[in-house]
Amino acid sequence: MIQSVLVLGSGSAGLIAALSLKRKLPRLKVRIVRSPEVGVIGVGEGTTPNFPRHLFEYLGIPRERFYALAEPTWKLGIRFLWGTRKRFDYTFGNQLDTHRPELPMPNGFYCDSDFSCVDPPAAMMRAGKAFPRQANGKPDLLPWHAFHVENRKFVDMLEAVARESGVEIIDGRVTGSERGPQGIAAVHLEDGRKLEADFFVDSSGFHSELLGKALGEPFESFGSTLFCDRAVVGGWERQEEPILPYTTAEQMDAGWAWQIEHEHHVNRGYVYSSQFISDEDAAAEFLKKNPKAPSSPRVVKFRSGCYRRMWVDNVVAVGNAAGFVEPLEATALMIVCSHCQTLVSLLSHSKLEPTPSMVQLYNEITLGTWHEVRDFLGLHYKVNLAPDTPFWQHCRAATDLTGIGELLEFYAENGPTGFCRYRMPRSQSDFGIEGYFVMLVGNKAPYRKRHHPTVAELKTWDAFRASLISKARNGFTVKETLSAIRKPGWDWSTATTPAK
Questions:
Q1: Is residue 357 exposed (0-12), middle (13-18) or buried (19+ Cβ within 10 Å)?
Q2: Residue 471: which pLDDT band, with cuts at 50, 70 and 90?
Q3: Burial level of 246, CB count in 10 A (0-12/13-18/19+)?
Q4: What is the pLDDT averaged over residues 345-354?
């Protein structure tokens, strides 16, 4: 029976894993080894909607505590400066995978010429607003959002909550590990200490100290689908720029650039392929578009892929120690939260004595998630027909989307119908069929079984969108919402209009 857990790494992945285990399985002794040399990556992170659900509902962290310590801003979706449309928005609501009762076809069939303001969050994004206005004049913090968080503040918040929850944090640099009959028996610290445990969570980042190095689990490259392997990272203190309620993803000559919105800082970066552009030229392209960024932005190298098994013997890898892909859809924390819940569920059901078949099931589920993330990100490149540079030409010709081949064939024949979901891969991602529709409709991917709306249908459709736009214009900006929730007397219990 597992009685003690040792987590290697005190970044967001390690802390979320430790908190998930301790709060849901409180009899476990949970410790974290924190290396004082590693520090925290000082970048902004975007999330998906499973992140607030995990923090507030699953872990029970009070909203007021999170907002006070992490100081997040809200993310309604992603603004894509992408493809032949030049711009379209991916929200966390159902824009396309839904059907207006007054129209004969699902929404996606009415977006050929104009794909905008199709659901409330999309209308908010176009208006530069974060939330609608309640009848009492306060912002209506409806649960259609994710967050932008600054990594340092977020980690500090998680660490404080972890300590309060009974997680022990040990400072020390891991220099090696010791094998035992169950897999790993202990890890050794530089100062001579030996830390034993029944179960280990490897959250040691790209080093993957236990799963990759000690246990030698093979790594699966995603290089045939995702060609980017580096990023130029830079940002600046916010000046007069408005705080946008979304992440921006903008196509570049040899990749794409992100923009993440914090209250006092703009985080910017350029993900690119070193096969098609040098570090120097990538930095020059980045600085030309972002003159406020530091004149010498740092370059980060990475490899896309994951380990074939995330649970081997008595070691589970979480976060970058398990796998990594570029942050095109902010999947890092989505995967961490999802896989931590799966791990806790399997451990709980097996009464902390996991069977080989439970371990196998975990590995099948987690590998499936990584494969879907790989294929979904690859779709972004394959169907973008606008840029005509060597990199984008290569993406359109060579991106391997075998994993979602049946879905793409079905869509090519039938269009954005909900029946496409029966050709989707099974996984734990937040994408759903909606995500695929946004990429396909947003990039005007062709399909044969088209619908030709009547004049009456288009009038009804336009009236529906106009009503969303009208309501959005009266909403609150991010800055106004931040000001509202910080006023004395703000009541989180009335932050959302009750469901009717």
A1: exposed
A2: very high
A3: buried
A4: 98
**Per-residue DSSP letter, 134:** P
pLDDT in tens, 254-305: 999 999 999 999 999 999 999 999 999 999 999 999 999 999 999 999 999 9
User: What are 46's strand-pairing partners?
Assistant: 148
Which residue's entry shows tokens 């060609």?
227
Could you give the CA distance from residue 230 to residue 232 in angstroms, rounded to a whole number? 7
Task: Please compute, for residue 249, the number of CA atoms within 13 A of its CA located in the half-sphere on the CB side.
Answer: 23
pLDDT at position 39: 52
| Alpha-carbon gap, residue 219 to 221, rounded angstroms | 6
Q: What is the C-alpha separation between 314 and 194, in angstroms, rounded?
A: 17
Q: Pick from 8, 402, 480, 479: which is nearest to 202 by CA? A: 8
% of the chain at pLDDT higher than 70: 98
| Residue 499 binned pLDDT confidence (cut-offs 50, 70, 90) | low
With contact defined as beta carbons under 8 Å apart, do 493 and 145 qualify? Answer: no
Residues 6+ apart with CB under 8 A from 128: 242, 244, 245, 477
Strands of the sheet containing 44-46, edge to edge, are 44-46, 146-150, 73-75
pLDDT greater than 80 at residue 428 = no
Alpha-carbon span 477 to 261, nearest angstrom: 13
For residues 231 and 482, what is the distance between their CA atoms, to the nearest angstrom? 31
Task: Kindly report, residue by residue over 93-122, the tens digit of the pLDDT.
Answer: 999 999 999 999 999 999 999 999 999 999
pLDDT in tens, 61-70: 999 999 999 9
Residue with tokens 């309640």: 134
Take residue 166 and report the two structure tokens written for it.
Answer: 């009974």
The CA-based angle 363-423-412, given to 5 degrees, is: 135
Decide: 151 and 12 in contact? Cβ < 8 Å: yes
Asked if 308 contacts 220 with a C-beta cutoff of 8 angstroms, the reply is yes
C-alpha count within 13 angstroms, C-beta hemisphere, residue 248: 20
- Say what the alpha-carbon torsion angle 79, 81, 83, 85 is, to the nearest 10 degrees: 80
Q: Please, which residues bridge with residue 301 across strands?
A: 230
Please give the helix or strand (H or E) that residue 288 lies within, else none: helix 279-289
Q: How far, in Å, CA of 425 to CA of 369, rounded?
A: 9
Task: Provide φ and ψ at 425, rounded to 5°.
Answer: -70, 150
Question: What pLDDT is attached to residue 498?
Answer: 64
Q: What whole-number distance in Å separates Cα of residue 325 and Cα of residue 312?
A: 21
CA atoms within 13 A on the CB side of 152: 6
Dist CA 305 CA 374 (whole Å): 8
Beta carbons of 169 and 34 less than 8 angstroms apart:
yes
Shortest CA distance to 46 belongs to which of 222, 213, 198, 261?
261
> Rounded to whole angstroms, how far apart are CA atoms 221 and 227?
11
